[in-house]
């Protein structure tokens, strides 16, 4: 990546971070481009240099999250098959902490709420989910040999995804108590034979 490309990427990230903060603070519709520009410390016109609309900003936020998930699944897939389940279980603590982060939870729920009103945003989220589910299920099926990989993937994604709602409803959530329980559930789901 050239210096100019790095600077452009940094400016895009600056806008995405500012927009994320504004969406959490004001909601999607309350976060006009003027507020995003002020938070990003740049002009509205400069933001339009990188993104054509707020929808495009949401798409880029989702894409950025998706790229991180793709990288994590690529790392897992590269491991020998007999190490994958243990590696995933060892990541449970990081996943619980990440999925129960109050800011990220509020942002994700704001984007999901907008998806209920906006078919374009809904399509972006559904495409992201399809991609991540596919990568996850593929690891469970091809690397761990689990024949009901789709159902196991859906259950694990539901369990971890539910933390976003729980932390906003229960800010005193005891993550340290949840981690060993998640690890136990993951051990069962990733190591037990599939039921016929």
UniProtKB/TrEMBL annotation:
Keywords: DNA-binding, Transcription, Transcription regulation. SUPFAM superfamilies: Homeodomain-like, Tetracyclin repressor-like, C-terminal domain. Residues 9-69 form the HTH tetR-type domain. This is TetR family transcriptional regulator. It holds the Pfam family TetR_N. Transmembrane segments: none annotated. Residues 32-51 bind DNA. The keyword Transcription regulation applies. The keyword DNA-binding applies.
């Amino acid at each position: 990546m050239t210096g100019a490309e790095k600077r452009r990427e940094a400016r895009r990230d600056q806008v995405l971070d500012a927009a994320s903060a504004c969406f959490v603070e004001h909601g999607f519709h309350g976060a006009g481009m003027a507020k995003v520009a002020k938070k990003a410390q740049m002009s509205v016109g400069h933001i339009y240099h990188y993104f054509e609309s707020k929808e495009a900003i949401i798409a880029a936020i989702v894409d950025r999250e998706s790229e991180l998930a793709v990288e994590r699944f690529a790392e897992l897939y590269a491991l020998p098959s007999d190490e994958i389940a243990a590696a995933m279980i060892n990541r449970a603590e990081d996943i619980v902490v990440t999925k129960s982060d109050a800011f990220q939870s509020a942002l994700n729920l704001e984007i999901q709420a907008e998806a209920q009103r906006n078919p374009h945003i809904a399509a972006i989220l559904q495409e992201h989910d399809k991609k991540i589910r596919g990568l996850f299920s593929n690891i469970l099926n091809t690397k761990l040999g689990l024949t009901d990989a789709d159902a196991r993937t859906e259950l694990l994604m539901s369990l971890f995804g539910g933390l976003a709602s729980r932390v906003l409803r229960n800010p005193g959530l005891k993550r340290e108590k949840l981690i060993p329980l998640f690890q136990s559930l993951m051990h069962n789901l990733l190591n037990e034979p599939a039921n016929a």
